[in-house]
Structures are given as structure tokens and as C-alpha cells.
Write a structure and sequence with these properties.
Layout lengths: L3 E5 L6 H9 L17 E6 L3 H10 L3 E3 L2 E6 L14 H9 L3 E7 L15 H26 L1 H5 L3 H18 L14 H6 L8 E6 L10 H13 L2 E5 L1 H7 L4 H10 L6 H12 L2 E7 L3 E8 L4 H8 L1 H5 L1 E7 L1 H6 L3 H6 L4 E3 L10 E6 L2
Parallel strand pairs: 1-4, 1-5, 3-9, 5-6, 6-7
Antiparallel strand pairs: 2-4, 8-9, 10-11, 10-12
Amino acid sequence: MGFKTGIVGLPNVGKSTLFNALTRTAAAQAANFPFCTIEPNVGEVAVPDERLDKLAEIAGSKQIIPTRMTFVDIAGLVKGASKGEGLGNQFLANIRECDAIAHVLRCFEDGEVTHVEGRVNPVEDAEVIETELMLSDLESIEKRRAGLVRKLKGNDKEAAQQDRLLAEAQKVLEEGKPARVVAVDEDDEKAWKGLQLLTTKPILYVCNVAEDEAAEGNAHSAAVAKMAEEQGAASVVISAKIEEEISQLDADEAEMFLEELGLKEAGLDRLIRAGHALLHLQTYFTVGPKEARAWTIPEGTSAPKAAGVIHGDFERGFIRAETIAYDDFVAAGGEQGAKEAGKMRAEGKAYVVKDGDVLHFLHSS
């Protein structure tokens, strides 16, 4: 199951530099002028998870296959994007295809790097982007509601549900709030998601700071953290320059470099974890001598649905899931030890998979 996070921000905030570092590529041109990224660049990164390495070591797995997250570098938005300013309409359409938004904010001072607004104020930058997304949603809602009129006259139930949800979204947007604040009933969740409104997508604010501020952040990143908390969003502090430098080093060199800077881990690790939490994702594992593999699923996923992530036939023919908790697998020294210690459980269709479960699915062909 692929999860796609769009990297957005005003021009010259460091998002293309961050994208390059995250994906270990130079696919996105990082240059000191607006609109240097014309097409959205897509890159996949492995999700770092020490548990997977430990499981592979215990099982003697020949191959380690981590789960992956997709990042899309979307060109810099500017004020007026919802009306087509810059390359706005194209960029907004690219955001619509993503599951979440990583909003990169400039939290560093540098006279050599031009800011499109001529000042450094990440909270105001965030408001600019949010406003453009809200205006785009309002325009979309008005067009869609107008298009539903005929179906509503014919008492179309699906159209009635859609119009009701669009009306709720329109109300909060006109109050200056994003559509994500709407409380949606469980029966409406599928239809709500199908509306694909830009402001329903969860946001992770990425505070791009100078290299010497990567460990503690600064006043700008503190202001962003406060804003994120008030919104129920998340924030993470990263130095795109550091991440870019790390991306050119091998594992040992990177570890030494981070130690010198007083950092315990790369910003990528923090960003991935924050992204997983934002999307309410978790990981389960399949482990054997051939390979140890991580699989990403939403929290609350049932065993058959989790099996379906591997292959649709596994879900359709699901019989049971042989389940070992990660800590039990490690403590028992592997699958056989866990069996002997009574730590392997046979779980049925109603079982909700937990983060870190080591699973083996039995299914009919």
C-alpha cells in the first residue's frame, strides 16, 4: 500500500533541497529562483525501522525489504495560486493526489537566499498556503454543488449525501477554517474522502532551520510548533542542508557527522515517523530465511485486510494469522522459540493487527 506525501511551500524555502536529500537523488533542481521545479518530482524512500534489522538478524534472512513512503516535490506556490498565479492550478491539482501534505517553512535567516515575500515569517507563510488551498476548495465546492442540482431534483441519495457534505465543508471554509475541522460521521467517511478537498489532508509542518540550529530549533520553529499544536497538526525541525550532506555519505560517515552536530538521528527518520503518525499508519512484519519484510497499514486494520496488502488472494482466502508480538519474537530468539514459549497465537478474521506484529498468513488458494 503506497502512501504519498506532497512537499509544498513557497519558493526558496528549501523544499527541493529537502526532497533531493530525502530521495537521495538530484531529480529536483534546487535553485535560487521561483518555479525552478516545473513538474512534480516523485521519489520513494525506505522507512527506517531498527526492528526490521533485528528480526532479519534473528531469522538469518538473506534479504531485508523495508516499507516505503512516496514523496512528491510540488513546485512553489505563491499568493494567488488558486486563481492561477505562478503555476498555481497545476500545482494544486498535484496536491489533490496526495494523502498528506508536508509543508516546508523557511525558519532560517540568509540574506543570499531571496524570500518571495521579502521577509522571514514561517507562520505567515503557512497562512498564505492555507488560504490558497481554502480558496481553491471553495471554488471547487461551488462548481460541484451547481453540478448536483439536477440529480438532487431527482432525489438521488448519493448526490444528496455529497451535497450535504459539500455544504458542511463550504460553511467552515467561509468561516476561514480548513475543511479538516468538520466532524464526519462514520457512515459519511468514504464519501467525504471521495470529495478530495485540499484542506482535508493532514498537514506536517517541516521547519527548515540553519545547520547550527538543527538540534534545538529556534524562535521561528517554536512559533510553528505552537501554531501546529493549536491546529491539531504536527511539526518537525530539520536542516535541509544537513540532510543534503548526509545523503552523500555512507552509513558510518553519516553517523559520525550527526554526532559532531549533536544530533541523535537524521531528520529523515524524524520526518518519516511524524508522517506515519500523521497518517495513523503502523507496521507489521513477515520474517523468514529468505527475507524479512515490513508492511505498512492504517491503524485499526483487520488481519484479512492486512493480508490483502501482500496479495488480494490472501485476503479473499484468509483462514487465520499466526501472530507473534515483536518483543516476544526477539525475547524468544525467533519463531520456534516463540512457539515453544506459547507466544504464537492463531488469530481469526476479527483480529486487529497491532504495530510490530510478526505475522504468517494461512489462506486457501
